[in-house]
Specification:
The complex is a heterodimer of chains A (322) and B (511).
Chain A: H1 2-27, E1 41-45, H2 52-62, H3 64-68, E2 72-76, H4 83-91, E3 98-102, H5 104-112, E4 124-132, E5 135-138, H6 147-156, E6 162-165, H7 167-180, E7 185-188, H8 192-200, E8 206-209, H9 211-214, E9 223-227, E10 254-260, H10 266-280, H11 283-291, H12 301-321
Parallel strand pairs in A: 1-2, 1-3, 6-7, 6-8
Antiparallel strand pairs in A: 3-10, 4-10, 5-8, 5-9
Helix pairs in contact in A: 5-12, 7-12
Chain B: H1 4-14, H2 17-35, H3 41-48, H4 57-82, H5 94-102, H6 106-140, H7 144-155, H8 166-181, E1 183-184, E2 191-192, H9 206-228, H10 232-245, H11 253-258, H12 260-275, H13 281-295, H14 306-317, H15 325-330, H16 336-347, H17 356-359, H18 361-393, H19 397-414, H20 419-437, H21 443-465, H22 470-475, H23 478-504
Antiparallel strand pairs in B: 1-2
Helix pairs in contact in B: 1-18, 2-3, 2-4, 2-18, 3-4, 4-5, 4-6, 4-16, 4-18, 5-6, 5-14, 6-12, 6-14, 6-18, 7-21, 7-23, 8-21, 9-19, 9-20, 12-13, 12-14, 13-14, 13-21, 19-20
């Protein structure tokens, strides 16, 4: 009786597995013949739900079906500064149905590793959707509240001036200070909020943050000294803030990039890039991105791929400065 | 400055059926999300955020704040019912909550968690409303050096959480510090102690550690006990239906009032921790729990008493209102949830900044009203959920142990959709079980794991800012010196208290 019962269980399990596998294979039937995209696109956000990258992913996915003809399934796969999600994306077929959205954080994490699990170039960039600029702020009455004042002070007091911000931010500042030939003390923080809090409390002299953060404290509590990128800030009250380009330096902006498996066919990359452009022109998307205090700075695949290559090379140099 | 016209407008914004409906939905979803191990308030808010895109500002805030408060309470339900904290904030609730559950007082414990949460939360919201801007100015005085000493002060509580054997407590704390150092160096950003394992570069996440140390180790212990018993299947057959419909007694007003001291401690400690950016509600819960044990050794907190639940829950919920202070005063979010609420405000075109009180006073007043009203909704809806979950917790052990094991494993995966977290949870389950076998307390491990990174990062930042001058870095302000003196006094008092208790034989084994 007992043996028969066990046999029935084993038989049921085998049938269940066969049916299950059949369903799985049916679900992954090849779609090369159909016009891309013929099914839902998995959109991997390499950071946890709730962060800036996640909000971008979700806002864009809300309009995806109108522009791609297929919906996006946003999946958050955080871990190891975004490398886990990136690796998971690379494990999927290079068919354009798995897309990765990242930032400079996983790139920096990979550059810091002696033996990185993947290379920062293990990605085919589809486009940039935005880029954040590291803006340096100082107290309005400080001698270093202008770029000229800051340079003069730093030359007279090498290493005395403290600059706080996240790793990306201090990297952006280090890049400029190195070109200007001045020495400052860089204070890395886990989050921009912590750095800004210490700046407002007078514990550090200056802080570096994104434009959207900086505009919450300028002009009441702080003034913007320099925008370390080459992308100008056109917002009211920030027109006179010098950018890296204005001062003759090579700037560094930190992109929100969208990429796919490096073996993905170019025609899919081109298609995706064009559709992303049209999605970012969508009024609803533009409205919500603006409300988040962020900007759409779109670069199509060809420009973005070149910009990304230059960024990685620039970061390799900046990491050595840190 | 108080603006009566704005207050009138805020009433109009607040008193609408939509606000109340969305607040109720928020609390319901929040309690459900919080009670599922691995899913936090932040996850819930992130998922619901797109819904608010097209909503007016007050219902959107009602939904998100309701969800946040519900989730913070929800975390304690599974902590009490299954020894699996739904959220990290509820970890300290496990110690007394689960012991009460095992003795059949689960419903009482859950209702105490709810009542103390709502009490401390409401009180801290009132503090936020009355003194947000001046308190924010005080918070800014705490720089890296002051935060370092504050964390050192918190370390002295390890003595209170160590039970009878201080050496075992220190061993547990050392393990916590070691685990906290795994990952990327907070200053030079170089991976360390990762042993070449790339997915450890981001450090060990708290949720899998907590699930392993609390839930899986407890279930391993219970499971091994069960395996030694016989006739398990028959027992389950008889008890499964009975167990689900069995209901323990509820919390009485007398029991609630008996815990006033612990709720007061939770309110003060939680509010203080909440208004300082970067510490968080989990630290608030553990500090409040530790202080309550220190202050009332006679109440036997840690052995399964309502006072322990009240201290931990009041401590974590009292951080909710004050974490919004830096956001409202300067636009700096004090916590992940504050950042999400800030994001929701920005989606409505309202940027949190020093101009917020000047430009949108009616929104700020409406936000305050929602903060208070959400507590009432949480109290009503939370009770229903609490009763349901505690019934599940009363199911027979042969059914409950594997159920919790599965839930905890799924929870560790659900946290980030990452299978490495499941591996970590299982490893920490074994570590936790080993600690139980050898009588090593887990609380010092958890608290040191939480606060050691803050101590290291702040000390190193203070040193960078002072260009390597240790005296200037750590004793450069009157506030720092005051905190050093407070640490010394607290350490002395703790040792004296512990010595007298050991002499009386009044300390329980371990927590």
């Amino acid at each position: 009786m007992k043996t028969r019962f066990i046999k029935v269980i084993i038989l049921s399990a085998v049938i269940f597995l066969l049916i299950g596998n059949g369903l799985v294979f049916a679900g992954e039937a090849p779609v090369e013949d159909a016009e891309y995209p013929a099914k839902m696109i998995t959109y991997i956000c390499v950071f946890a739900a709730g962060g800036g990258t996640d909000r971008w992913s979700r806002i864009m996915s809300s309009a995806a079906v109108d522009h791609f003809g297929q919906a996006w399934h946003v999946v958050n796969i955080p871990g190891a500064d975004g490398i886990v999600g990136w690796r998971e994306g690379l494990k999927k077929p290079a068919d354009g149905y798995t897309v990765i959205q990242g930032s400079t954080t996983p790139v920096i994490a990979l550059l810091k590793e002696e033996k990185p699990p993947i290379s920062p170039f293990d990605i085919k960039i589809v486009c940039y959707v935005s880029a954040f600029r590291a803006v340096l702020v100082a107290k309005p009455d400080a001698p270093w509240s202008t770029w000229e004042g800051l340079v003069a002070y730093a030359r007279q007091n090498p290493g005395k001036l403290t600059v706080g911000g996240t790793t990306s931010h201090v990297m952006g500042q280090a890049n400029i200070f190195d070109q200007a030939g001045i020495e400052v003390t860089l204070v890395p923080y886990d989050s921009t909020a912590d750095g800004i809090a210490d700046f407002l409390g007078g514990h550090i002299d200056t802080a570096s943050a994104t434009f959207s953060t900086v505009q919450t404290i300028v002009p009441e509590e702080a003034v913007a000294v320099i925008n370390t990128s080459e992308i100008p800030i056109t917002a009211k009250g920030f027109e006179n803030v010098p950018s890296a380009k204005d001062l003759g330096f090579d700037g560094m902006a930190f992109p929100r990039w969208v990429g796919v498996h490096p073996d993905t066919p170019d025609e899919i990359v081109v298609f995706f890039s064009e559709k992303m452009d049209s999605l970012l022109q969508d009024d609803a998307v533009k409205k919500f991105i603006k409300k988040l205090g962020e900007e759409i700075i779109f670069l199509p695949y060809d420009e973005a791929q070149e910009a990304y290559r230059k960024l990685v090379e620039g970061m390799k140099r900046a990491i050595r400065l840190l | 400055m108080f603006q009566p016209e704005a207050l009138k407008e805020a009433f109009q914004l607040f008193f609408t059926p939509e606000v109340f409906l969305w607040m109720a939905i928020g609390v319901t979803v929040g309690v459900g999300v919080g009670a599922i191990p691995g899913l936090s308030a932040a996850t819930g808010i992130a998922i619901m955020l797109p819904l608010t895109f097209t909503m007016p500002v007050a219902p959107a805030l009602g939904l998100l704040i309701g969800l946040y408060k519900g989730a913070v309470y929800g975390g304690s339900i599974s902590a009490i019912s299954f020894a699996t904290p739904g959220t990290s904030e509820a970890a300290a609730t496990v110690y007394d909550g689960y012991k009460l559950m095992k003795r059949g007082h689960g419903r009482k414990a859950v209702e105490m968690a709810l009542a103390s949460s709502v009490t401390a939360d409401t009180a801290s919201d009132l503090v936020t409303i009355c003194v947000a801007p001046p308190l924010a100015m005080v918070a800014l005085k705490f720089g890296p050096a002051e935060r370092f000493w504050l964390v050192v002060l918190a370390f002295t509580l390890i003595g209170a959480l160590s039970g009878k054997h201080i050496v075992k407590g220190l061993l547990s704390a050392s393990l916590g510090i070691f685990l906290a150092t795994i990952g990327t160096d907070p200053v030079s950003a170089v991976p360390r102690m990762t042993f070449g394992v790339y997915w450890l570069a981001g450090g060990i996440p708290f949720i899998p550690l907590m699930i392993g140390i609390f839930a899986l180790s407890t279930m391993l212990e219970e499971g091994i006990k069960l395996l030694k018993e016989s006739g398990v299947v028959e027992k389950v057959k008889v008890n499964i239906v009975k167990g689900f419909f069995k209901e323990g007694a509820g919390l009485t007003m007398k029991e609630y009032l008996r815990c006033w001291k612990e709720m007061l401690i939770g309110f003060f400690v939680g509010s203080f921790v909440g208004f300082l950016p970067g510490l968080g509600s989990t630290v608030g819960a553990f500090l409040s729990y530790g202080v309550a044990r220190q202050v009332s050794p006679d109440k036997k907190i840690g052995e399964g008493v309502l006072e322990g639940v009240a201290a931990a829950e009041a401590g974590n919920n009292a951080t909710v209102g004050p974490t919004l202070i830096p956001l409202l005063a300067f636009g700096i979010p004090g916590s992940i949830s504050a950042a999400l609420i800030g994001g929701a405000l920005m989606l409505q075109g309202i940027t949190p900044s020093p101009r917020l009180f000047k430009l949108y006073p009616e929104i700020v007043y409406a936000l305050f009203m929602i903060l208070i009203a959400a507590n009432a909704f949480n109290f009503g809806i939370g009770r229903i959920f609490g009763r349901l979950y505690t019934r599940l917790g009363l199911l027979p052990k042969p059914l409950l142990v594997p159920l919790i094991f599965v839930m905890a494993t799924i929870g560790s995966f659900a946290y980030r959709g990452n299978h490495y977290d499941v591996i970590l949870a299982l490893v920490f389950g074994l570590v936790g079980y080993g600690m139980r076998v050898f009588g090593i307390p887990s609380a010092p491990l958890v608290i040191s794991f939480l606060i050691a990174p803050m101590m290291e990062a702040n000390m190193r930042r203070a040193l960078i800012i002072s260009h390597g001058n240790w005296i200037q870095a750590l004793l450069g302000s009157p506030l720092s010196i005051g905190l050093v003196v407070a640490t010394a006094i607290l350490t002395f008092l703790s040792l004296k208290l512990k010595a007298s208790e050991i002499a009386r034989g009044g300390i329980e084994k371990v927590v």
